[in-house]
């Protein structure tokens, strides 16, 4: 049985831990609001980009479709872009993304296909290195980046495009966590190359009026340019969704840790008081017994 001094030390240690988790919870809550607003603001732009690409694609010939849309004609080599956080202590945020990517990677390997992995974030690289060390072709860390900007996504997008133009892969899929709410984040896989565009839902009247428009340069050239731009746009959206999901998950995890620390302090305090009372009672009995013996 632990001594009273040991129990006091442990209670003080748990109290110190509770202060840290409470502070981390408050910091995450402050960062969450900004990250959530940024993620929600990026969604309409990404959705509108998909709509414009779908509209342009409906007006271009399938024979002259850009390679980013038509693909290489094969799906043998797959590039998995796994985006996670730089730090832990955020619940299952990192592990859920890695779990989804690992499951897809294992499925592709069973199908006899080649898997290459590009990690964005330290935690994803550290976890996937255990099972797919030889498949990791590059790792990008955003450590020290306080405010995510489009330039960060553009650097990653340029890297992906260079690999595709170099014939290093046929299909590229991005893995990130879509922010739903503070307590709900959905691990998501989004195919970037070849691009999967939504169906153009314009009416017949709209199509006639749109077909009358003249594009300068041609629709094919604009589509090719926007497809390249779309890679960075979708990556930027994924980074922002990840940032909001990370803070939401960290806020929830630190709130749970603070509550658990409080429960542990209460239990340890009760145990300490009982043991202290038992020790006092024992000493009183010894004193009374000694007095009676005299």
Radius of gyration of CA atoms, rounded to a whole number: 28 Å
Instruction: Enumerate the spans where pLDDT stays under 50 for 5 or more consecutive residues.
Output: 203-212
Overall residue-averaged pLDDT value: 83
The count of β-strands is: 5
Largest sheet, strands/sense/barrel: 5 strands, mixed
The H/E string reads: HHEHEHEHEEHH
Which strand order does the major sheet show? 3-2-1-4-5
Strand content: 5-15%
What oligomeric arrangement do these chains adopt?
Answer: single chain
Task: Report the structural category.
Answer: alpha/beta
> Between the first and last Cα atoms, what is the distance in angstroms?
33 Å
The number of helices is: 7
Fold and architecture overview:
The protein has 294 residues and is of the alpha/beta class. Helices cover 64% and strands 14% of the residues. The protein has seven helices and five strands, in the order ααβαβαβαββαα. A five-stranded mixed β-sheet has the order 3-2-1-4-5, with helices on both faces. Helix 3 (93-110) runs parallel beside helix 4 (122-132) and helix 5 (150-165) crosses helix 7. The longest helix is centred in the last third of the chain and has 75 residues, at 219-293.
